[in-house]
Specification:
Elements (H helix, E strand, L loop, with lengths): L8 E4 L5 H12 L3 H6 L7 H18 L3 E7 L2 E9 L11 H10 L2 H17 L6 E8 L8 H14 L6 E6 L2 H9 L3 E8 L2 E9 L6
Parallel strand pairs: 4-5
Antiparallel strand pairs: 1-2, 2-3, 3-4, 5-7, 6-7
Helix pairs in contact: 1-3, 3-4, 4-5
Length: 211
């Protein structure tokens, strides 16, 4: 449950915050080049497919006991991130229940595209003992206030506390976001081409976290 707090605070979210988390991530990703390609923005029902995918990814994280991290300010969730643990590697192709729900809500073509994209990104990242940051978003009314940087730094601290983690991996098809992560010490380790979108796969090793 989100409580009233006078200052921004990073918290591990529980199921009480799912609706807020879904709304933030939907607005953060619906206009992103990656999602527009993966879920065919030119075809009818695009927004529904994005909503369905974000819902299923959040539900999968909770069901797999992976962290869903948030920043709260005055009782309101202003940022959220899904953090994959090095102890639990989620191969989406093996997640039968997730695949079925995705196909029923986002459609077969979008599900296949998303799984293929996820597999290509994974191949670019070093090893398996790492944290993954598949989704992170800041509420549109609170952007430009440093919450994104605060979230990344908090995630890095969590990762430093896990001796199994080799670092943090992520990807983005947004050049502005890539520059943001580069400013925080992430390096580009590969590319994935999605139609006309070039996805930058980025990594920050454990030795550089919090530096």
């Amino acid at each position: 449950m989100i409580k009233d707090l006078p200052h921004p605070e990073v918290v591990r979210l529980d199921s009480d915050a799912i609706s807020e988390a879904k709304a933030i991530l939907y607005h953060a990703y619906k206009d992103e080049p990656t999602f527009r390609y993966l879920f065919d923005a030119e075809r009818s029902g695009y927004e529904q497919r994005v909503r369905a995918t974000i819902r299923e990814l959040i539900d999968l994280h909770f069901a797999s006991h992976q962290d869903v991290i948030g920043i709260t300010m005055n009782g309101r969730l202003v940022a959220v991130a899904l953090l994959g643990s090095p102890a639990i590697r989620l191969n989406l192709a093996d997640q039968l229940n997730w695949r079925i729900r995705m196909m029923l809500t986002a459609g077969l073509a979008s599900t296949r595209r998303y799984i293929e994209y996820h597999e290509q990104v994974t191949k670019c990242l070093p090893g398996t003992q790492r944290h993954d940051l598949p989704l992170m978003g800041v509420d549109t009314a609170h952007q430009g206030k440093g919450y994104g940087k605060l979230m990344v730094k908090a995630i890095e601290q969590l990762c430093r506390e896990n001796p199994r983690s080799a670092g943090i991996g992520l990807d983005t098809g947004n050049e502005k976001h890539a520059k943001f992560y580069e400013s925080l010490g992430f390096e580009k380790v590969g590319e994935v081409k999605l139609g006309n979108v070039v996805e930058s796969v980025m990594f920050k090793p454990a030795s550089l976290l919090m530096n």
